[in-house]
């Protein structure tokens, strides 16, 4: 996380609809610096591990339903040793009925879906929609943020902190493991490609497993128009590409490290001159950093047979991420 930036976000290109997800990691440190390992759905269901840089012996656990802020949902867990100096294993075990957070193999918090009933909304305020795995480092202590956020993050961030190395704050992720469970037994549909949202209520029963396509035709496309911006010359079955990324005239750092600045076109000695290309683009505020592999097996009594690639689609939500390949376990 460089000076003046908003940090870095890595997000999986596949979605998980219940599973065991773990990250072996070291956090960053310093006032205003937050390291995060979370699950986030397109309907803003969220499951969190977050680490404030002024308390390296505490992991904050949290959950949200449909993005509704409830400050009573958070709970702290103790880490056995300095989270920046030492690797620790953080695990989220998410099932239709229960959610468990663990650190180094020890359960530190359990949430039962049955305990989240909200009589006002007449639904369970429990994360229950397909979600992506996200790893991030972000400056919650920016002076432009709300004061409550700054206070939670331990104060305003300093860009001259001894915790910075070569001009960067940093966190380290040694490995990430994603073990998908089977979809709920009463899940609708029998496809193998995507999850489709069928109601704005976004309850577990409002998702259907389909064979609808999920790969966007270009960086301009969305879930509402899959082929927007695709080249007219693309043949059936061929890869679809876009000549440009919205908001960018080129790629790479450009002048003064500003992405997309292409005012100069010099080439290095011995290299070939190339035309302007396209950079990657992610959705929900981030870019895809890793792809879930297909080599995991079921655990905790949940089997893993064929798992679909997960994405929300339909008229209610626009999908703005390009999905790559199938998730076959």
Automatic annotation (TrEMBL):
Keywords: Glycosidase, Hydrolase, Signal
Biased composition (Low complexity): 260-276, 292-304
Name the record gives this protein: Glycosidase CRH2
GO BP, sorted A to Z: carbohydrate metabolic process; fungal-type cell wall organization
SUPFAM superfamilies, per the entry: Concanavalin A-like lectins/glucanases (SSF49899)
One of the record's GO cellular component terms: fungal-type cell wall
GO MF term (any one): hydrolase activity, hydrolyzing O-glycosyl compounds
Species lineage: Eukaryota, Fungi, Dikarya, Ascomycota, Pezizomycotina
InterPro entries associated with the record: Beta-glucanase-like, ConA-like_dom_sf, Glycosyl_Hydrlase_16
Spans annotated as Disordered: 241-307
Native source species: Lithohypha guttulata
Boundaries of every GH16 domain copy: 1-168
Listed Gly residues bias regions: 277-291
């Amino acid at each position: 996380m460089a000076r003046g930036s908003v940090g870095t976000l890595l997000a999986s290109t596949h979605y998980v609809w219940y599973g065991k997800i773990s990250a072996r990691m070291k956090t960053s440190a310093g006032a205003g610096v937050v390291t995060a390992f979370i699950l986030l759905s397109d309907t803003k269901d969220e499951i969190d591990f977050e680490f404030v840089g002024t308390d390296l012996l505490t992991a904050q656990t949290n959950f949200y339903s449909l993005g509704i802020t409830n400050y009573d949902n958070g709970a702290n867990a103790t880490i056995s040793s300095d989270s920046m100096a030492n690797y620790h294993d953080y695990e989220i075990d998410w099932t239709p009925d229960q959610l468990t957070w663990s650190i180094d193999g020890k359960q530190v918090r359990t949430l039962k879906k049955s305990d989240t009933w909200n009589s006002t909304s007449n639904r369970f305020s429990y994360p229950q929609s397909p979600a992506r795995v996200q790893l991030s480092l972000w400056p919650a202590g920016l002076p432009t943020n709300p004061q409550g956020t700054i206070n939670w993050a331990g104060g305003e961030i300093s860009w001259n902190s001894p915790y910075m190395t070569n001009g960067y704050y940093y966190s380290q992720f040694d490995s990430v493991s994603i073990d998908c469970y089977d979809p709920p037994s009463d899940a609708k549909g029998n496809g193998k490609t995507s999850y489709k949202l069928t109601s704005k209520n976004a309850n577990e029963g409002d998702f259907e497993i389909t064979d609808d396509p999920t790969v966007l035709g270009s960086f301009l496309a969305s879930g509402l128009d899959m082929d927007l911006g695709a080249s007219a010359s693309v043949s059936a079955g061929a890869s679809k590409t876009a000549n440009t990324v919205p908001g960018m005239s080129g790629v790479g750092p450009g002048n003064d490290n500003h992405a997309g600045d292409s005012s100069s076109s010099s080439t290095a000695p011995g290299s070939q001159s190339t035309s302007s290309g396209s950079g990657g683009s992610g959705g929900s505020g981030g870019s895809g950093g890793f792809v879930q592999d297909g080599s995991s097996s079921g655990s905790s009594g949940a089997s893993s047979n064929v798992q679909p690639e997960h994405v929300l689609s339909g008229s209610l939500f626009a999908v703005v991420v390009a999905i790559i390949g199938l998730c076959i376990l």
